[in-house]
Amino acid sequence: MEPRVVLLDLDGTLIERGQPVPGAARAVVELRRAGHTVRIFTNTDSQSEATLVDRIRGLGIPVALGEIFTPVIAAREILAATPGSRVLVLADRAVRDELAAHRSPDAGPPTHVVVGDCRETLSYPALDAAFRAVRAGAELLALQRGRYFRAADGDHVDTGAIVAAIEFAAGKPARVLGKPSQDFLRLAAQSAPADLLWVVGDDGTTDIPMAITAGATSVQVRTGKYLDQQATGALPRPTHTINSIADLPALFPPP
Q1: What would the DSSP string read from start to end of 119-159?
Q2: How much is the pTM?
Q3: CATH topology classification for 5-43+180-251
């Protein structure tokens, strides 16, 4: 079997409620040992790349810098490629620090508004500032637009709800940088052709349709959001469905 590029979702696929899914680390090791390229791509929008790598390693899952892709990295690349970009960041400190090179409030009005996880810093004045900047012409960049996320203490409102509020108030749509954006998929795939690309995740509203649109092989795991979403109605049909990430290596014939 020709080596594949395998993109693994993080929360709900490799990790669930803050703990590694049983067999996750072994699955990653087995895939790499078989010659496949394994990368992690996630809509996590509250941590820097280095912090996220440390968190994943701390759970026993092998990953290195450059093997993980987040919407924060996508935002950084967009701003770096836009001469004169000035960003207003509606997100917590880690994201503001990642985008610090483009935060120049004294240089003029914002050209971009980046919205990410802002649970620790969200206020009405901050929301107003973002809304006013977008209405005045700044491009609204949503690091992701998930409705909710699942943590050890229960479900929490996600970034998508904040993005939707600004879109509604300003009357302008956001550009979504995370899943299910095809731009984000291409960033993580790094030029891998669709016939060699596998996307593995728990979310039938982002991971699976993103893979289907790209023509990649899609693998749905029955962990994370799977049961909740199955109860809500019809979802796209993946190429494969497995109980958990631990079963993934069995889908790949020996080299």
Answers
A1: TTT--HHHHHHHHHHHHTT-EEEES---SEEEETTEEEE-H
A2: 0.83
A3: Rossmann fold (3.40.50)
